[in-house]
Each structure stands twice: as C-alpha cells, then as structure tokens.
Amino acid sequence: MKRSDILQLLQEILKRQGKPSDVAETAELSAIGFRSLDFSELALRVETASGRPLTFDAAPLRAIRTVADVLDFLQTASGQP
Amino acid sequence: MNPNAVIISGGSRGLGLVLVKHVLARGCAVATFARSATPDMAALAKEFPDRFLFEPFDSANTAAMDTFVGKVFAKWGGIYGLVNNAAIGQDHLLANMPVEVIGQLLDVNLKAPILLTRAVVRRMLLGGGGRIVNITSICGQRGYAALTVYSATKGGMDAFTRSLARELGGRGIWVNSIAPGFFPSAMSSSLAARQLDTIRRRTPTERLCKEEDLLPVLDTLLFAESNITGMTYVVDGGSSI
To answer: Can you list the pairs that B206-212 forms with residues at least 24 positions away whose Cβ atoms lie under 8 Å?
Structure first.
C-alpha cells in the first residue's frame, strides 16, 4: 500500500475525532493526539485496503514516535516497504 | 451502522435463550449461534424474520465463528453489542479429569469467547463504539470443588474483561462481566442437590439464581449511558458475601 494512502487513512482517523488532520510526517504522535487505539484502527483499515492480515506485537509500537514512524511500520507490515 | 445489532453466543436454550428473547423485546436485532438448533430458534426466526439470525455451529469452530461475525456485520451494517454467554460445565475432580475435557473447557469457555470478542472488536473499532458483556460466574471468584477448570475459565474471562476495558475504553467500547450464582438447572446440574441446598441455605435472599435476575444488570451494561466499564457484577442473592 502506498505511503500517501496510509497517510490519508491516518488523517481521516484524526479528522473523525475532530483533531487537526493536516499533519506532517515529522509530527510527534503525542502532539497530534494519535493514540494506540488510533494505530490499531489504522492497522485494521490498512489491512482491509491491502487485503493482507496484519498482526504484530505491541512492543515495537512503543518505539513509534512520529507520523513517519507509523507510515514506515505499516508499509513494512503490509509488505510494501 | 445499526446501533442495535447484538450478538449473543449460545442463545438456543437456558440463560442464553432468555437473554436473546429479552434483547429482541428491547427492539434490537439479535444474532446467535449454538451447537444445534432448537424449536425456540425456529419460532424466533418466524416471529422476527428481519431481526433474528441463528446458525448452528460449535463455538470451538473458530473459522465458522469468524464467518458468522462477518455475516452479522454485513446483514445489519454494524455490531453494537456482544454477549459472551456460551459455555460448558464441569463435574470432575481435577486429579481424575480427562485431559481432553480440560482442553474442551478451555476452548469453549475461554479461547472461543476471546476469539469471538476479537472478531467483533475489529468491527467495533471501525464503527464507533459498542458494548461487550461477558457472562462469567461466581466460580471465578469463589472456590467450588469439582469445578476447578470451569472456575479458571470464568476467572480468566473476568480478568480479560478488565484488561480489555482498559484497552478499548478510549474508543467508547465498554466491557463488563455479569457473574451469576448458581441456577437450579442446566449449568449447575453438575452440583449435587445437597450442594445446591447448602448454597440456598447460605444465601441471604434464600433462593438460587433465576435467569431473569440478570436482565436488569444486562440492560444497564448493554443499553444505559452509565460510564461503567471493566467491572464484574455478581448476581447471586448475596451468597458470596
């Protein structure tokens, strides 16, 4: 799945919660209010869009700090680094 | 999304059937499954052709369960509630208990509801919240001989309830347990009549549980704006105090 498509899904999740959605890849997740359940939802949406089951441990998620980290992780997990 | 679609596992008889009828009477769409159909399932399908779905399969059949959840989601456009009710009982001293029976209890009473919950939560996260109610047992909190593994599964579901509530609370998905005491019939048939008499004598309300005793609590946990999550509600006439 393309990086820009994943970013768009991420922005839609933020928008639905009334949070600013025009976020840069350098944005810190804590600053934009993107929480672990938002990541979980994003992974489900990437899974649906890519048609590939995505399962992963929670440990690597704790190292994720920025929007770019999220996109890197999900691109890799969905098989399109 | 249909805000009123509720899945109730093991709804063909006993407590599950009472729960199914009650939630239907509240106007919800109800989907349930059990190992085999009963005349009640056919009657409900006839009475509520647009709001009732029954499929016969064993809850240990995880592939069928996942397909079922997908079918419910597609049929009603969302899943608002899940009641994990299906369970099997036990009547064995641990030392003499067949290993296969231990496996069955863990599969049906613990693994299956966890997998069913996972399948439903994946839909709820994309849909905007929901309610999950796990029917556990007083056995999860108190000790009863010959109910060791059953107790472990029910205590496990109470623990699952608390951690899942922590995990999902931020998305409006509330998770709670109802832990009934002993019923005179069905699941507690493994207890000898003498044991049930003892429990009854020691119960402040001087009677065992009726299935209907759970309904006011279920209403609160499924339908009320209560801000309650991660809790286990004991409905046992005070026998465990």
So the answer is: B206/B237, B207/B237, B208/B181, B208/B182, B208/B183, B208/B184, B208/B237, B209/B180, B209/B181, B209/B182, B209/B183, B209/B235, B209/B236, B209/B237, B210/B183, B211/B14, B211/B15, B211/B18, B211/B19, B211/B183, B212/B18
CATH number at residue B210: 3.40.50.720
| Interface contact A40-B170, CB threshold 8 A | no
- Confidence (pTM): 0.91
At the topology level, CATH places domain A3-77 in: 1.10.1200
Q: Give B8-52 pLDDT, tens digit per residue.
A: 999 999 999 999 999 999 999 999 999 999 999 999 999 999 999
Residues in A closer than 8 angstroms to B125, CB to CB, are: 37, 40-41, 44
Judge if ipTM > 0.90: no
- Closest chain B residue by Cα to residue A16: B128
